[in-house]
Structures are given as structure tokens and as C-alpha cells.
Amino acid sequence: MGAPRDEPPELPEGTRLLDRYSIIDRADTGGMASIFRAMDERLDRVVCVKLLRLVLTGSGSTAGGHVYRATYSHFVQEAAALSKLQHPHTLRIYDFGYLDDGRPYQI
Fold first, then answer.
1. pLDDT by residue (tens digit) across 2-38?
2. Counting beta carbons within 10 angstroms of the beta carbon of residue 3, is it exposed (0 to 12), middle (13 to 18) or buried (19 or more)?
3. pTM for the complete prediction?
4. The dihedral sign for the CA sequence 54, 7, 104, 23
5. pLDDT-wise least confident of 6-20, 32-46, 53-67
């Protein structure tokens, strides 16, 4: 099953993010985000990249919709909040950025 027609293409293998992370492959796709494995070339470790989808599955919303704007805002706030936490039962955010098309991602 491919991405919806309005969805930009996935991140292909070898795509570099923040001049440091190189995409290995896609691990999973959910209704809100796609998850990729990537290599942190600076620290020689595998990391995950969580990329917010442009079209949210099941919502029918796109970048202009209220649901998408709320999800986008939550995604950015989540990155900021998780970056401040250090606990064995929470995810750690190492980095954050935006693709050229404006979609945010978390490392």
C-alpha cells in the first residue's frame, strides 16, 4: 500500500538530514507519522527518525486543515518537551528539523 496521492514521497535510502543522519530504511508508517532508521554518522549509531505525515490517515485533513495544524503543533511541542526529559521509560529526542517542504521530523 503506497502513500496517498497528496502525500510527498517517502525519504529514500541515503537521504541526509541535518548533514549528519543518513536514512537506512523505513521501519513503519502510522496515521500520524512515518518512522525511519537512520545512521548518525557523527556518533556512529543507529537512530530513528519520526517524520510527520502531510496527510493524516483517517482524518481527511491536509496541511490546510484544523486537525493537521493541531497535530503539527503537538508534534513540535512533543519534541521540545521530550528533549528535556531523561528517564529510562521515555523516548529521547536527539535532534529536530524540517524538510524542504516544511514537514517536521524528530531524531
1. 444 455 668 999 999 999 999 999 999 887 889 999 9
2. middle
3. 0.77
4. positive
5. 53-67
- The rounded distance, in Å, linking the Cα atoms of 45 and 34 is 20
**pLDDT tens, position by position, 73-85:** 888 888 888 888 8
Compute the CA torsion angle 57, 61, 67, 70 (nearest 10 deg).
90
Annotate 4-64 with DSSP letters as a single string. -TTSPPP--TT-EETTTEEEEEEEEE-SSEEEEEEEETTTTEEEEEEEE-SS-TTT---TT
